[in-house]
Amino acid sequence: MSRPAALALILVAAGARAQTVGVGGVVQPEADWQQQDTSVKVIDPRYSGFAIRRTRSWLFGDIAWNKVRFEARIEAELMPQFQLLDAYVAASSDLAGGGRWRIGLGQQFAPFSRQTMMPAAEFQMIEPAQLTSLTPNRQIGISALLSVPYAPWIEISGGVFDGKGVDIIENIDNNLMYVGRLAFRPIGPRGRITESALGEDQLSIAGDVSYNVKNLGDYDETTLLVGADAFFCKWGLSAYSEFLYGHVTYPASSPKQNYDLRGINAQAGYLLPIPGVLYRRLEVAARYEEIQPNTTIQIEGPGDPNQHRGSIVGEINYYHRGHSLKVQLAWSHNIEFQKVDRNGNNAEYANDTLVLMVTGRLEFIR
Question: How do residues 23-44 score in pLDDT, each as one tens digit?
Answer without folding.
Answer: 999 999 999 999 998 888 898 8
